Amino acid sequence: MTDPVRYPQHASAPVRTKRAFVLLLLTLLIPGSAQLVAGDRALGRRALAVTLLVWAAILAAGVVALVNWPLLVNLATGRFSSLVLVVVLAALALFWAFLFLNTLRIIRPNLLAPGAKPVVAVALAALMLVTSGSLGYAAYLLNVSRNAFGTIFETRPAFDPVDGRYNFLLMGGDAGAGRVGLRPDSIQVVSVNAETGHTVMFGIPRNFQNAPFPADSPMHEVYPEGFNCGDECIINALYVDVEQNHADRYPDAKNPGAEAMKDAVSGILGIEIQAYALVDMGGFEALVDAMGGITVDAGGWVPISNKTIPGTNQHYPPKGWIAPGVQKLDGFHALWYARSREFATDYDRVQRQQCVMSAMVNQLDPATVLTRFQQLAEAGEQVVETDIPSSQLGSFVSLALKAKDQKTERLTIGPPDFGTAADNFVTYPDFTQIHPRVQQLFSQETETEKKASKNDGGGSGGGDSSGGGDKQPKKSTPKPADTPEATDPQITEEYLQQLAEIGDTATIGSLLADNGKCSLP
């Protein structure tokens, strides 16, 4: 009866206060221990058993993380396993909250000194928020991701690398006003070494013609000589053509247009494209904002285009400008940086699109994912469609982390890497040049890895490079002798806007030539 832990009514006021905080601390560190020493021992034993099981699960997860951490990602993203985790986390949150409330009953607040009662109450509320609140919020985020992953990713069988590589087609689709159907204006291929994570990015201009289809493609029967019906058959029109006229060629596909694009790009590059991701360019803005923006080193002034002048293919003067130099771009400006081609060429735009994609991959670090998880999941659910299997998310996340700290090689299938804008290479492509150059980049990658391993295991470093192999020198539009360079400090937004308003497109074009020279800071 004199034990102050079980019988606080016989203890002094300071001892009762100390007892209250000790019991709260026990419930925080070893849930169930407060009940064992001062309350319902049967409840305490059950709670302590749950605590030990949780500790064992955490230890096991740590071991798995060291041996095969992609397995943990797959467990967190699997439809059934993630549901189990959500239920378990929610149940633990409620049970821990119950234990704290039970601990409050054991404390017997009526025995505390008047000044101690509010302090204990605040401490209890804070501990419940940190513990049960955190577990409940984790369950909520996991459920958000579960819904997003279920919407975005496919439940098809996993696929193996081809010739040691995973090849993904990334398309930026634009179904804006005045357009018939969706047109992928941004067409990129990301090829990743399945072992090292080394990445090569290929940019395909939207106006590329005569794309060939592999012999086993359903579209080979429709276009045996390639997608070659003239200016109407630029590659970004293929998506709409298949959706409207040849969807029956892909009876089992949820997106026949995307499947046909995969086949066409496979023919262009001479490699097998295994999966695609389609991003709605209108929703791309939300995705970048969910990341907190991206940082690029812009190579030249880029206009934010205004509306088209009725009856012409010209635009009103730009609504704004993106300046050269290191820029932190929000979603709106990142979208325009990637899509603008006014006063420049499609080929400059392709290079900027590659740079934006590289920036998103490099800057989507674990801290960003954790702090902005809900925004990213919600934005991704709205703007991304893909046929990547959900069962491979773990391995692909692991591969992406390997790729983050390595140099990304880039090659545009058109100027400046193949001919010039005046050569019409994308209209009459020479595939005897394209296929060897693609394989050459892969071979150079192997040689670079061998050299790196000889030099004390040093890597190729971070960053971003343009082109590869025996890339042809880039020819830029000649500038008048008295025209300053686009990066000259005297060039201002006001000066460019004045040129646009008086219609001096020749001077603006010379200043904006090569504005695709983008890199990562």
Automatic annotation (TrEMBL):
Which InterPro entries does the protein's record reference?
LytR/CpsA/Psr_CW_biosynth (IPR050922), LytR_CpsA_psr (IPR004474)
Enumerate the residue ranges of region (Disordered).
443-492
Signal peptide residues on this chain, from the entry's feature table? none
Q: Which UniProt keywords apply?
A: Membrane, Transmembrane, Transmembrane helix
Q: Where is the composition biased (Gly residues)?
A: 456-470
Cell envelope-related transcriptional attenuator domain residues are 183-364
The entry sums up its family as follows: Belongs to the LytR/CpsA/Psr (LCP) family.
Name of the featured protein: LCP family protein
